[in-house]
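hey so i finally got around to running the thing on that chain from the lab meeting. sorry it took forever, my laptop kept dying and i had to restart like 3 times. anyway pasting the input first so we r on the same page abt which one it is
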Amino acid sequence: MENVNKSKKRKKRLSFFQHAKKEAKRGRYGKGSQLDDDTYQYFLRVMQIKPVDFETQEERNVFVNNVFAQLEGQEANCSFNQLASRVIENLIPWVEDEVLRNFGIKFCQDLRPICTDPFASHVLQTLVSNASSRSLSVDNSEQKSLQSLVLQICSYVLNNMEEFVWDTYANHIIRTCLECLSGIPSVSATGQNNSSQKSTLNDVSERTRVEREVPPEYKSLLREYVNRLILWPQLKEMSYDTLTSGLLQTVLYALRAVDEKLCKMFVKKLLNNCFLPGVGKSGECEDKKLPEDAQSIPELFYSEPAVRLMETAIAVSPTTKISTQFYAFIFIGRLIALSKDPLANFAVQRLLANCKCKVEFEAMFDEIADGFESIFSRGNIGVIVNLAQACVRLSTRQSQFIKNLMKALHCSDAEQNSLAYLVLGLVKHEDWKPNKEELSVQLNGSVLLQTMLKFNKPIKIVNSLMEMSASELKNIFCDPKGSHIMDAYMMSEYVGEKSRERMVRKLQGTYVALACSKHGSRALDAIWSAATMKQKLIIMDELAPKDAILNSNQFGHIISGKYGLSLYKYKAEDWKDVQGKEHRKKALFADIIGDVQKDSVK
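ok and heres what got predicted. didnt touch it at all, straight out
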């Protein structure tokens, strides 16, 4: 039976274009509004042509403008069709400003059905996002007309906000309008950010970064949105609903970028009306099971939308006082119980990441200190990582952190040489297999070790790394999750020159393997960037005899060219002169770029 299952090949999923073409052969012309066969086939042909493939901008403009000319009089009707809406979305970023303005004017003649349609709503999002970004360009001749278009759409959505917030598609249009009015990166509009860009926008500083200064009219309309929300009697209900919670998070990001005073007022409103114990939405905790030792857990932790909203509120809080209120009213006395919960622990992480008061953090640390092992056992390592990062940021409780971590990992002082191994694998000492070369490096374990290397006294971590064999270190640095440890080791101001020297010598015999590895080569690069001339000579003496192996490898070839391996092999003195000039140049600008090689720990 097992062989039969293996022999069954999984069918390859059809692309959107392939599926649309297949449906057309069956006489089905897409979901949504029905198009005639000729129009549908036309959009299929257009979808096959990618604007980026044109050699010149003039050819691209002719193609895109021609498509929008064909849409004239049918702008809205075509947008209600699944295929046509996808084509229009893809082409809007490439259309000329005047054509975009004309399309927008005709498209927005009747916005109500568009805002709640599963296909046309995405076209509207893309339209308002592109019109907004172009309206902020100072050299744009259509600036005023595009601003008017953006204000028209955003004003209409505001006037109908009471209805639109509860609709799946209209809700996301409101989010896009808020992002456009504040000038922050748009993650709601489709087609505006690829997956890698969206992942960077999880960072609050990136999420609230103003790409361009917005005009006063935009800010005024944004404030009107928020002032109406503050007065809503359903604000508490919105906080506990997945759809509307996401909208309120967008409001917070937009306000943080534009108006900190109003942001503070809105956060306080959420804290007092939605988050404080006893004011949560009833009926949300029927199936929720928190740890047995959880006592008087606020009801908001029973609801994921509410927790996510609170995390955002903590992250954008413009003053330390508000963050302190969150800690005092919601978290204090409950940190261990919350840290052990699969949902609530993320809120604790956000609280720790945004703590700016040393005294307040020390109180948090002291409360969590006794719960290291139970938190570790639950697998919520993110709490421990954020605790370590706060120890670095506020320069406090570092030695206590290491002591509590060793206790949680059942690692005694006599066994501290295994600490790095235990942290990387996130295993307790009794589960450690010292003869096992292949260590399974955990992401959180790697981040935790990197953070601890930034402690004022990371000597226990340094010594435990030095206790590993060269082969074990090589395997760690060739791992995608472990390669960044070398960056932290070589760049930490508290890892001294002697410790770096020990690492360079410890890795002798592995440099060729590191150079020929995708991730090992970047670890080698981290060593090279911080190495002295003496240390570089050790590395080059090992690489030079193996230049043929390096040059035949994709990554080794890059290392060989970057380090000047050929020059070193045949003209070593010339190579030393070149390297000497680079070191002198680096020393000359050390005061400007910062000297990261300080001998603080030997």
